[in-house]
Amino acid sequence: MARPEWLNKLENPWRQNPWFESVAVAQQRARKRLPKPVYMALVAGSERGQTIEDNQRAFTELGFAPHVAGHHAERSMSRTVLGQEISLPVIISPTGVQAVHPDGEVAVARASAARGTITGLSNFASKSVEEVTAANPNTFFQMYWTGDRDVMVQRMQRAHAAGVKGLMATLDWSFSMGRDWGSPEIPEKVDLKTAIRFAPQVATKLRWMWLFGKEMEIPDLTAPNLAPPNGGAAPTFFGAYYEWMTTPPPSWDDVAWMRQTWADLSGTPFLLKGVCRVDDAKRAVDAGVDAISVSNHGGNNLDGTPATIRALKPVADAVGDQIEVLLDGGVRRGSDVVKALALGARAVMIGRAYLWGLAANGQAGVENVLDIFSSGIASALLGLGKTSIDELSPDDLVIPDGFFRDLGE
Ligand SMILES: Cc1cc2nc3c(=O)[nH]c(=O)nc-3n(C[C@H](O)[C@H](O)[C@H](O)COP(=O)(O)O)c2cc1C
C-alpha cells in the first residue's frame, strides 16, 4: 500500500532542534550522545580536580560594572592576533580529539574558518595537518617536546609545508596519572576484540554509531601528524605518548632553540602555551617567543595550579607590552571572554567548549559555540557601554580582594 502524502510530510515529532543556547546545554547533549569513555576523555582533569574546578569558578567571582545609558549600537570584536585578523577574540585551542566525531579536527577547522578565527591543531590530533589547513588556512600547529631534535624539525617542516600560520609549543605537561572520578579506558587500537569488549558502552549510543557507520569509519586512535616521513605508519596514541614520556624535559635553551628553528624555517609566529608565572613569562620573552598563553592545560595537568584568570593580570602587566598574552582555561561564555580581555588578554583559547559543540552537532555545533561566544561578547560590550573590545579595562569589572595570584617575580 502506498504511503499517504501527509505521512511523507510528517516530521519526526521527537527530533530535537540541533541548535543549543549555551555551552552547558551542548555539554549535556555530548554526555547523552558519546560513549562513556569518549565523554570522560573530554571531561579529563587530574588528581582531585582542584584546578579544573577553579578555572571555571574563578570567572564567577568576577562581576561587571555596567552603564545604564549611553550605550552604542556598533560593537566591534575583530582584532589582529598572532599576525592574523580574526573576527572574534576566541581561538580554537589544540586538543587531541579522538573518536568524538568522524570529521574530528576537520569539522572544527571548517567551523572556525566559517566564523573567521584561528584553529589550533594538536600533534596528537586524529586528522592530518594537510587536511586541516585545507579546511582552515588559518591553522596553527601545536607540538609537545617529544622525540629528538631531528624528529621535531621534520615535524615542523611538514607543518610548514602544509601552510600553517604559526607554531604553538605546549610544555607544561607533568604526566599526572590518576583522577578521583576514574580514567576512561582507551584501547591501544580498535579491532574486533576491542569492538566486542566496548560494545556494552557503545551499543546505546545510536547517534554516535550512526555517524561513524555512515562514513564507514571506525576511530583508529593513531596520531597521523607524528608519522615518520616517506610514508611511515602513524604511531598509536599510546606509542606517541610513550615517545613523549621518554623524552628528557626541555630547558629554556631548548625553548629558544625551538623558537629560533621555527622562525628560520617559516618566519611565522611562535606561541608558548602553559605559562602561569610572571618569571616564566619574562623568560619566554628572553627566549624570543611572540606570544604566550596563560594556561594550565585546562586543569588536566598539575592539580593545585590556580585558575588561569587569577594569574592573567600579573603576567599581562609584566610582559603584555612586549609580546601577546592569551588565556585559556574555563572559558564557557562571551562574558568570560570579556573578563579575560579586560584583565589584559589579547584573545582567549577554548578547549572543552568547542569539543561539546562538536559532539553535540559536528561542524554546525562548533559554529553554534562560536556564535554563543560572539553574542555573549556583544551583549557584555553593550551593557558596559563600549564600542569595541579595545576599550575594555579592569575598571569594567568588580574584582574581589585577593582575587589575583601573582606567581614569581
Ligand atoms: C580532551 C582534551 C585534550 C587536550 N589535548 C591537548 C593537546 O593535544 N595539546 C595541547 O596543547 N592542549 C591540549 N588540551 C588543552 C587545551 O588546549 C586547553 O588548554 C584547555 O582545554 C583549556 O581549558 P578548557 O577546556 O577549560 O577551555 C586538551 C584539553 C582537553 C580537554
Please tell me the overall pLDDT.
93
**Each distinct ligand:** flavin mononucleotide
Read across the widest sheet, the strand sequence of neighbours is 4-11-10-9-8-7-6-5
Q: Share of helix among residues? A: 40-55%
Structural class: alpha/beta
Helix and strand string, N-terminal first? HHHHEEEEHEHEHEHHHHEHEHEHEHE
Which sheet architecture does the biggest sheet show? 8 strands, parallel
Instruction: Tally the helices.
Output: 15
Strand content: 5-15%
- What is the CA-CA span between the terminal residues? 81 Å
Number of strands: 12
Overall geometry comes to globular
User: Residue ranges: pLDDT <50 for 5 or more in a row?
Assistant: none
Radius of gyration: 22 Å
Please characterize this protein's 3D structure:
This protein has 409 residues and is α/β, with parallel strands linked by helices. Helix content is 43%, strand content 11%. It has 15 helices and 12 strands. Helix 5 runs parallel beside helix 6, helix 7 runs parallel beside helix 11 and helix 14 crosses helix 15. The chain is globular, with a radius of gyration of 22 Å. The model has no long low-confidence stretch (mean pLDDT 93). The site of flavin mononucleotide has 25 residues, from helix 3 and helix 15.
